[in-house]
Design a protein that fits this description.
This protein is of the alpha+beta class. The chain is about 45% helix and about 20% strand. It has 2 domains: about 140 residues, Jelly Rolls (Sandwich); about 80 residues, Orthogonal Bundle (Arc Repressor Mutant, subunit A), CATH 1.10.10. It has 9 helices and 11 strands. A 4-stranded antiparallel sheet has the order 1-8-3-6. Helix 5 packs across helix 6, helix 6 packs across helix 7 and helix 7 packs across helix 8. The protein is elongated and about 55 Å long. The two termini are about 30 Å apart.
């Protein structure tokens, strides 16, 4: 097995299970690499299970009018798709925000083994509970986070909705528009952008913010609300 895949697997919830449970899930499966801006899952498609090896994946829902809202992010060591396997198709989509590598897990085998092995079934239930916690955390950040957290979260949201495949991750927004969106003032937002720029996370120009490191920007959005 690819050493990067093996490391991500060991740190995922599957890494806590015995090999006789996990090995059948991995047989004959492949690693896939996607450029930034790729939609790797659309709501209503058959269930898929993916181990995130590297990169960042945005999970979002859309309205009938085409508006989008992020419900959570998939990071390295996350296993995506367990909720689909347990609950069936969801109106949620998955988009890469950075070059991303995933390892495919056989979704049918995952469901079949979970139905007969309580160890895997309970681990998947814990995983779904963790995903709910993260969705709630995302709502809390948007509502109660610090200005820097809300700036980081809003930049990711704006840039991802405007992103094109293999193109830079860019938010076309002015400092005043960003301040209005998060309920702050331009001077405070400008200071946050300077800090993010000094850290090499974003590059700014007039009415434009390019996200240079979406993974680190996501970490900035989590900040003090990050779970231990």
């Amino acid at each position: 097995m690819d050493p990067n895949v093996a490391e991500a697997l060991a740190k995922s919830f599957l890494g806590r299970l015995p090999s006789e449970v996990v090995d059948p899930l991995l047989a004959d499966q492949v690693r896939l690499d996607y450029p930034a801006g790729t939609t790797i899952y659309r709501g209503g498609e058959p269930a898929r299970a993916l181990l995130v090896v590297s990169g960042l994946i945005r999970i979002y829902v859309t309205s009938r009018e085409g508006r989008q809202v992020t419900i959570r992010y998939g990071r390295p060591t996350d296993v995506l798709g367990t909720a689909l396997i347990i609950g069936g198709p969801l109106n949620a989509h998955a988009q890469t925000l950075a070059p991303t590598s995933v390892f495919v897990i056989d979704a049918r085998r995952l469901e079949a083994i979970a139905r007969r092995d309580a160890r895997l079934a309970y681990a998947m239930a814990e995983q779904v509970s963790d995903r709910l916690d993260e969705a709630i955390e995302q709502i809390a950040i948007n509502a109660f986070g610090s200005v820097k957290q809300r700036v980081a979260s809003q930049l990711l949201e704006l840039a991802s909705t405007q992103q094109r495949p293999e193109a830079p991750l860019v938010a076309e927004v002015s400092q005043q528009e960003l301040a209005d969106a998060i309920g702050s003032v331009r001077e405070v937002v400008a200071r946050c952008l300077r800090e993010l720029r000094a850290a090499g996370i974003v590059a700014t120009s007039r009415d434009r913010v390019e996200v240079l490191d979406p993974v680190r920007l996501h970490e900035e959005s989590r900040g003090s609300l990050r779970r231990p």
